[in-house]
Amino acid sequence: MAMDINYDFESLEILEPTRKVIKEMRFKKMTEVQARIIPHLLAGYNVLGTAKTGLGKTLAFLILAIELLHSQIFGIMILDKWRFKN
């Protein structure tokens, strides 16, 4: 069964400040990986996704992080293994 995918950022149930920044950055349509995972992330599901570099995985993660910061009283710490090389 084929799943209809909505690639429009406007279709996301996100806060207006997040939507405004996405517009200011001139993003109009989501990449396939974004369209497939962002709705599930926003719904609270754990998601594992892979895609080539530059296809929007980081933006998908950051949209969720920003939405959580607005709705929850906690912080986010991001550890990047590449920053800890000797």
From TrEMBL:
Please give the Gene Ontology molecular function terms for this protein.
ATP binding; hydrolase activity; RNA binding; RNA helicase activity
Q: Where is this motif: Q motif?
A: 7-35
Class of enzymatic activity (EC top level): hydrolase
Alphabetically ordered keywords of this record? ATP-binding, Helicase, Hydrolase, Membrane, Nucleotide-binding, RNA-binding, Transmembrane, Transmembrane helix
Segments spanning the bilayer are 59-79
SUPFAM superfamilies per record: P-loop containing nucleoside triphosphate hydrolases
Domain DEAD-box RNA helicase Q, chain residue ranges per copy? 7-35
Reaction catalysis annotation: ATP + H2O = ADP + phosphate + H(+)
Q: Which Pfam families match?
A: DEAD (PF00270)
Report the Gene3D superfamilies cross-referenced here. Answer: P-loop containing nucleotide triphosphate hydrolases
UniProt keyword Membrane, yes or no: yes
Q: What is its EC number?
A: 3.6.4.13
What note about domains is in the entry? The Q motif is unique to and characteristic of the DEAD box family of RNA helicases and controls ATP binding and hydrolysis.
Task: State the similarity comment.
Answer: Belongs to the DEAD box helicase family.
Its function?
RNA helicase.
Q: What is this protein called?
A: ATP-dependent RNA helicase
The organism named in the record is Acaulospora morrowiae
